[in-house]
Amino acid sequence: MKYFFYCLISVVLFSACKENKKQTVQLPSDSIFYLTSQWKNQNGDSLQLKALQGKTLAVVMIYTTCKAACPILVSKMKSIEAKIDKKNIKDVSLVLVSIDPTTDTPEKLKEFSITNKMNDPQWVFLTSNDAATQEFANVLSMKYKKISPLDFSHSNIISVFNPLGELVSQEEGTIDVDKVVNTINETVKKNK
Amino acid sequence: MKINIFLIITVFTLLLYACNNQQKIDSKEINIANSTTPNNSIPLTVKMVYIPGGEYKPFYGSDSTLVKVPAFLLDERAVTNQEFLAFIKLNPAWRKSVIKRIYADTSYLNNWVNDTTLPKDAKLDAPITNISWFAAKAFAKSIGKRLPTLDEWEYVAMADKTTANARSKPTYSNEILDLYLQKNRQYNAVKQSAPNYWGVYNMFDLIWEWTDDFNSVLTTGDSRSGQYDDKNLFCAASATSATDIMNYAAFMRFALRGSVKANFAIANLGFRCAKDTLILNK
């Protein structure tokens, strides 16, 4: 009985070890999951980008008080979401990162997600601080500049990352929704 | 029987140890990526110069509006090979053999003999180049400094040897352009030429310099697309106007900033550090 008990514990420990190893899959050198900045999602949970590991990501940077380009970007993200193969949606996260962390609190983002009917689990809204935002914008090679307390000018880019955080493609300017959708579906398929 | 129990316990302990060890390595791996240990071991001989705040008209921006630049401290010269080597020795995560590509491309320190050896014939007091924006930022952070903002840098760049704002002098832009044309100037030692009005050295004659918000230059939607959607800058209409003769040299700097990415490492692109100051008027 005693031995059985020890054995059991050993097995449990062993499996714990295994799981541990599984989580530390070697990330490619250019993975965004190496970034150590702290973010908050629309529910107020603190997280690092590596929490998004394991799913294909469509990422865009916006700010919620934007009246010009962002509503278009947001609607593009929504049509991308609507066009992704239904069987793939559980393997996809659509991530909207705020470039205005001062204004875009988690509560603000939550409100925004409800108003825009983006409250399914595949929608992730992120906000952090100026330094993390700047770093992330630079990882996406995205240009932005604060032009007044409530206004930013910025480049319009939707980026697709594979489940290991590697950039697969970027669409910018007038974004071709179908192209992004194809990339997402293919990336999901490749990583199954 | 007893041996058996002993064996089981040993295995048990070993497993536990292995598990812990594994975790330790993991957390280490995660932390080193962006970590820089604050320390005083980098030979900090650089003097910081107090730059009183002021307003200036940016070469590029919302046309005629003046931009306020609060007072700040700026390194009198660029960060040198010697200083960056010391940083590398203290922060192994930034060595070229282990650096993640997300932080620096393959040109990162590519002229170094190995992880901790400067290029052959490199002067210790020549500016460090071939480093990415991420590396420059990490260096600055490790010594309690930061990179200067684009506005701060350009504000200091308005000075010549005798005046704080030399933009209206006809000789000014030409002198800078002459300096920009010299080849391999990044291999020269710092502080060999005369300082400017503020006592700041080598703003133009050795290297291009990273600024903290270099990515605020919205010259193009994306540098790779080749679509220059901002005619204000790329038509260079203002660059030819006689009202601001400095523009062509500034134009070159802005074109560079608009075309680089944060993980680029370039042979003549280095940096100097800045710091906030509480002194408003000296």
Total strands of chain A: the figure is 9
Query: Beta-strand level of the residues of chain B, as a percent range?
Result: 5-15%
Given the helix and strand composition of chain A, which structural class is it?
A: alpha+beta
Total domains of chain B: 1
How many helical stretches of chain A? Answer: 5
Oligomer: heterodimer
The rounded distance between the terminal residues' Cα atoms of chain A is 42 Å
CATH class annotation of chain B? Alpha Beta
Q: Would you identify the regions of chain A where 5 or more consecutive residues have pLDDT less than 50?
A: 18-22
Instruction: Provide the gyration radius of chain B in Å.
Output: 23 Å
CATH architect. name of chain B: Alpha-Beta Complex
Q: What gross morphology of chain A would you assign? A: globular
Give the class-level CATH name of chain A. Alpha Beta
Number of structurally distinct domains of chain A: 1
What about the largest sheet of chain A?
7 strands, mixed
Q: Kindly report the average pLDDT value of chain B.
A: 80
Distance between the termini of chain B: 83 Å
Structural class by sheet pairing and helices of chain B:
mainly alpha
